[in-house]
Amino acid sequence: QVQPVESGGGLVRPGGSLRLSCVASGNILRFNVMGWYRQAPGKERELVAAISRGYTNYGGSVKDRVTIAEDSAKNTVYLHMNNLKSEDTAVYYCHVAGTVVVDSGQQHFDSWGQGTQVTVSS
Question: How many other CB atoms are found less than 10 A from the CB of residue 1?
Answer without folding.
Answer: 11
